């Protein structure tokens, strides 16, 4: 049960992190129109942040269920 | 035309496969081996979120606003992190209360209110119909485009054709048939459709594969990876604006409002509620969906921008609608099978959405709109009909058909006024209105029915005014001046800039006003209103869903007959199903058959749950009320319950008090026991001391008697001395026995007292006379120092004399051998008389001054010196003096004689003496 509340708290933390990553101040940092490896910076940032968030969710969900 | 035939054949084959999967799923479910009972199927079926709006519309939106298509998928990703808290609670609540739709959920939370259920249904239907229209449009136009292969040309809009030539009509009818076939095969109390879920999961897989296929082909076949696409796209005009925010991609404000909107819709769209809450098999499946569902969304979006740019580069501007790039690109590149796959993918996206949405809406229409109205319509006599299960199915099938046709009508009427993506957002904004009532209902106990009603109505009206009516105006149903000048040319009522609020985009503007009014009214009315007891009970069930162990409301009083209840449930579920359900319930309770059931609150609750599955919580309550004489919980009952509670409290308090008293009594008993043991020990000591003391004189008597007996020729002088000793020892023995008896009497309080007022002077002079013989023998002088006047004291004359004799005898024993002198003095103290008996003997060690008052203790060494007395004189004297209320003590120092003093209180004696005086006066 303690494990479950911990999992819930970790997920809430991820939710907040996601809110932060996908909103104004951080987003503006990457909104400059540059490129990384030929890929537009904002596009790359959004998908990388999204993917990392999903990886973190996998870690939280799958690790705490064991 | 062979091509059209091929397309039709493929479509029909695809629908056939779907139906086969659904049929197989249902069969497996009936056999108890569910195929959907695993988290992967659950997460895949959730992807019904991605409709043809995603499949075709994302590219269309990306062509206009670049990365602006993303918030609609980022929001659900964020919400997925909260699934474990929010969605799981929704599932728990719905399972416990047999909730089968979002309308049911809200109605049940606010006291099973039929009005609220109806309002939610209305909002959902009005909000979602355009969305269904959108799917029909997507399917029909993709069909028309593909049909013209190899030419790529935007089809004439379906509206240009007559209704009978319009493919959208046939699509609508086909989908309606399909939905009816496996959405409403039978009535089920849990309202779950395993086969349908299996088919939806399959569809999610198909649309993902189709989209990925196009994306991979375009990105890696047509170009050399992402970098290549973006590099070439850089030559397009205005491409920079598509890749940054702040341009057409939208400001940060609209970006955030879209994320927020899509967060709410992933929970509150009727189809999402149906799939993720109602069709959920096991709430632990939510855990896997937390990451699997966002992963799905990521996968289906990763190729959107490459496809968009490829389309923009491939087709001259304005010739091809960006909404169709996904289909037209493979067609233009002569990839027939890929194009067909895309068509099937789009078909799956549209059918999946339409099937689930119409099933969810038809349940709501039937349970929360049609049934409450029909049941209240007395003229129909519906409440008396024997079997209503057929009617229920009929209503649902009718509702599905009606919804599909409404969608079609909307599609015909609205036409091309709006791009696909905007229609979707209008729907999202409508269902977002459920958020305050739903979330508030789950986490806030004070939310009331009136609050939810006013919040929902206000929010809905504002949504209507700021989003739907402008959409109508743009479609030409209302004059455009409505938008531009405001109704009746009142500027501050302009629907897209209400109260002059400009600078937000349409969605953000509408969302702000409608949710502000919604939340404000909900919270405000709730805080200033009152909950009924039923609302309160439901609020507890919902908010404490994780704490409540599943039992329903116990606040129920009433009477019902079991057969009536079973018959009632039978009318909606079918008699056979009802009997089965109640037999199962009886078996659960350990009863042999349903006939043995007792019509109690639990049974009624069970029946209500069964009915709620079929006709909704609000209607179930109405129906049960018709057979159950339910007595509402009046003030009396509430007071009664309170009274019971306070009685219980009083009992427990009394119990506590008694146990405390018991503890005290136990303590007293223990103390008494200890005292008894102590006394027992004292008695043993006393007896052994007494016997020891008695043996001393007895031994000497016996020794001298034996000498006399054995020596008859002893000379007379010797003989006389021995006999003298025997006599003296016998006297001592007698005295000792008398004193032991005396002491026992005094200690037990059985001694006789003849108290009277005494003149102490007389008593002292008597004592002097009595001891004069002894004093002469020992050569001791006694002098008295008596004041002239001594007030009388209250005492027993003989006892007081005994004390004086005792003290004098002691003084004689211990005073100086050669010049013995004893003095007796009396002092008159304020409240007492003090008598001192002074001798000039060797005195008493301070160590012995207390012990001499103990029984059988004498000053000096008992072993070496011959005892001079019995050792009982002083203890007896002290007992006597204490009985008179005085004190006996000794003052002495070694070698300076000893003074024994005692006091006798004066107070009562004066009164007694005056009485005695009067008595003498009268000569009594």
UniProtKB/TrEMBL annotation, chain A:
Keyword terms: Membrane, Transmembrane, Transmembrane helix
Transmembrane helix recorded as keyword: yes
Keyword Transmembrane helix: yes
Domain of life: Bacteria
Entry's transmembrane regions: 12-30, 42-61
The protein's name in its UniProt record: DUF3311 domain-containing protein
From TrEMBL, chain B:
Sequence similarity: Belongs to the sodium:solute symporter (SSF) (TC 2.A.21) family.
Protein name as it appears in the record: histidine kinase
Reaction equations catalysed: ATP + protein L-histidine = ADP + protein N-phospho-L-histidine
Topological category with respect to the lipid bilayer: Multi-pass membrane protein
Enzyme class: transferase
CDD domains cross-referenced by the UniProt entry: HATPase_EvgS-ArcB-TorS-like, HisKA, SLC5sbd
Keyword Kinase attached: yes
Keyword line: Coiled coil, Kinase, Membrane, Phosphoprotein, Transferase, Transmembrane, Transmembrane helix, Two-component regulatory system
Annotated ranges, domain Histidine kinase: 689-908
Coiled coil region boundaries: 655-682
Superkingdom as given in the UniProt entry: Bacteria
InterPro entries reported in the protein's UniProt record: HATPase_C_sf, HATPase_dom, His_kinase_dom, HisK_dim/P_dom, HisK_dim/P_sf, Na/Glc_symporter_sf, Na/solute_symporter, Sensor_HK_Regulatory
Keyword flag Membrane: yes
Annotated EC: 2.7.13.3
One protein family per Pfam: HisKA
Molecular function as annotated in GO: kinase activity
Transmembrane segment boundaries: 6-25, 37-56, 62-87, 114-134, 167-184, 196-220, 252-269, 290-317, 337-367, 388-411, 417-439, 451-473
Subcellular location: Membrane
């Amino acid at each position: 049960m303690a494990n479950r509340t911990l999992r819930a708290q970790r997920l809430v933390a991820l939710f907040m992190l996601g809110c932060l990553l996908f909103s104004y101040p951080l987003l503006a940092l990457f909104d400059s129109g540059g490129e990384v490896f030929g890929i537009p910076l904002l596009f790359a940032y959004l998908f990388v942040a999204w993917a990392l968030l999903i990886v973190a969710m996998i870690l939280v969900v799958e690790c705490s269920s064991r | 035309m062979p091509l059209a035939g091929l397309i039709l054949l493929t479509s029909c084959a695809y629908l056939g496969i779907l139906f086969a999967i659904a049929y197989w799923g249902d069969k497996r479910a009936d056999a108890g081996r569910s195929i959907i009972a695993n988290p992967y199927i659950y997460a895949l079926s959730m992807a019904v979120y991605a409709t043809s709006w995603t499949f075709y519309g994302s590219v269309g939106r990306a062509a206009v606003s670049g990365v602006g298509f993303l918030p609609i998928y980022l929001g659900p990703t964020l919400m997925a992190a909260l699934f474990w808290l929010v969605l799981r609670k929704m599932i728990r609540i719905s399972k416990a209360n047999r909730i089968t739709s979002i309308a049911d959920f809200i109605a049940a939370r606010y006291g099973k209110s039929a009005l609220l259920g109806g309002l939610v249904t209305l909002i959902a239907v009005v909000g979602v119909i355009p969305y269904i229209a959108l799917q029909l449009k997507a399917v029909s136009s993709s069909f028309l485009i593909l049909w013209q292969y190899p030419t790529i040309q935007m089809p004439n809009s379906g509206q240009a054709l007559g209704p009978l030539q319009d493919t959208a009509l046939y699509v609508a009818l086909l989908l309606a048939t399909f939905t009816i076939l496996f959405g409403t095969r039978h009535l089920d109390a849990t309202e779950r459709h395993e086969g349908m879920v299996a088919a939806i999961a399959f569809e999610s897989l198909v649309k993902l594969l189709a989209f990925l296929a196009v994306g991979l082909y375009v990105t890696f076949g047509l170009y050399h990876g992402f970098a290549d696409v973006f590099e070439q796209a850089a030559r397009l005009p205005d491409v920079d604006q598509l890749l940054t925010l702040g341009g057409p991609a939208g400001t940060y404000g609209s970006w955030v409002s879209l994320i927020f909107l899509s967060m709410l819709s992933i929970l509150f769209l009727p189809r999402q509620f149906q799939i993720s809450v109602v069709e959920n098999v096991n709430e632990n499946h939510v855990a896997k969906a937390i990451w699997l569902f966002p992963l799905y969304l990521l996968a289906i979006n990763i190729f959107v921008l490459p496809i968009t740019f490829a389309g923009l580069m491939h087709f001259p501007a304005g010739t091809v609608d960006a909404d169709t790039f996904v289909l037209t690109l493979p067609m233009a590149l002569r990839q027939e099978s890929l194009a067909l796959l895309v068509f099937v993918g789009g078909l799956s996206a549209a059918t999946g959405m339409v099937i689930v949405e119409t099933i969810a809406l038809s349940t709501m229409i039937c349970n929360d709109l049609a049934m409450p109205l029909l049941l209240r319509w007395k003229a129909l006599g519906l409440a008396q009909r024997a079997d209503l299960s057929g009617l229920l199915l009929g209503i649902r099938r009718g509702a599905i058909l009606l919804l599909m046709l409404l969608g079609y009508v909307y599609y015909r009427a609205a036409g091309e006024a709006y791009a696909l993506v905007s229609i979707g957002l209008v729907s999202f904004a409508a269902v977002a209105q459920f958020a305050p009532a739903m979330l508030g209902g789950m986490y806030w106990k004070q939310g009331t029915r009136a609050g939810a009603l006013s919040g929902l109505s206000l929010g809905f009206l504002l949504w209507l005014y700021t989003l739907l009516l402008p959409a109508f105006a743009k479609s030409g149903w209302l004059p455009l001046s409505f938008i531009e000048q405001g109704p009746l040319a009142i500027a501050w009522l302009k629907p897209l800039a209400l109260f002059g609020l400009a600078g937000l985009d349409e969605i953000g503007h509408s969302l702000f006003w409608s949710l502000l009014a919604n939340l404000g009214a909900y919270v405000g009315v709730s805080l200033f209103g009152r909950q009924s007891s039923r609302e309160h009970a439901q609020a507890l069930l919902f908010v404490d869903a994780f704490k409540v162990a599943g039992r329903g409301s116990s606040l129920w009083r009433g009477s019902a007959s079991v057969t009536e209840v079973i018959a009632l449930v039978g009318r909606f579920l079918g008699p056979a199903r009802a009997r089965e359900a109640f037999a199962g319930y009886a078996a659960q309770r350990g009863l042999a058959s349903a006939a043995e059931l007792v019509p109690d609150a639990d049974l009624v609750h069970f029946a209500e749950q069964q009915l709620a599955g079929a006709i909704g919580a609000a209607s179930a309550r109405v129906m049960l009320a018709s057979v159950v004489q339910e007595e509402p919980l009046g003030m009396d009952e509430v007071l009664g319950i309170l009274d019971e509670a306070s009685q219980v409290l009083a009992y427990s308090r009394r119990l506590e008090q008694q146990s405390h008293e018991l503890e005290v009594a136990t303590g007293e008993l223990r103390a008494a026991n200890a005292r008894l043991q102590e006394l027992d020990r004292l008695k043993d000591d006393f007896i052994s001391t007494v016997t020891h003391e008695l043996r001393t004189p007895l031994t000497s008597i016996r020794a001298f008697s034996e000498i006399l007996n054995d020596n008859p020729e002893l000379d007379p002088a010797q003989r006389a001395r021995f006999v003298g000793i025997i006599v003296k020892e016998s006297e001592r023995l007698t005295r000792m026995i008398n004193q032991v008896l005396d002491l026992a009497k005094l200690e037990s309080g059985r001694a006789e007292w003849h108290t009277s007022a005494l003149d102490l002077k007389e008593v002292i002079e008597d004592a002097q006379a009595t001891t004069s013989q002894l004093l002469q023998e020992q050569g001791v002088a006694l002098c008295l120092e008596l004041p002239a006047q001594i007030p009388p004291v209250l005492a027993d004359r003989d006892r007081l004399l005994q004390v004086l004799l005792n003290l004098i005898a002691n003084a004689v024993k211990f005073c100086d051998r050669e010049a013995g002198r004893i003095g007796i003095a009396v002092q008159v103290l304020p409240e007492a008389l003090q008598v001192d008996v002074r001798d000039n003997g060797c005195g008493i060690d301070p160590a012995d001054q207390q012990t001499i008052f103990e029984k059988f203790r004498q000053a000096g060494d008992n072993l070496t010196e011959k005892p001079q007395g019995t050792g009982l004189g002083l203890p007896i004297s002290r007992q006597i003096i204490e009985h008179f209320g005085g004190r006996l003590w000794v003052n002495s120092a070694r070698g300076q004689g000893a003074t024994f003093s005692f006091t006798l209180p004066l107070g009562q004696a004066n009164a007694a003496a005056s009485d005695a005086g009067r008595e003498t006066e009268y000569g009594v």
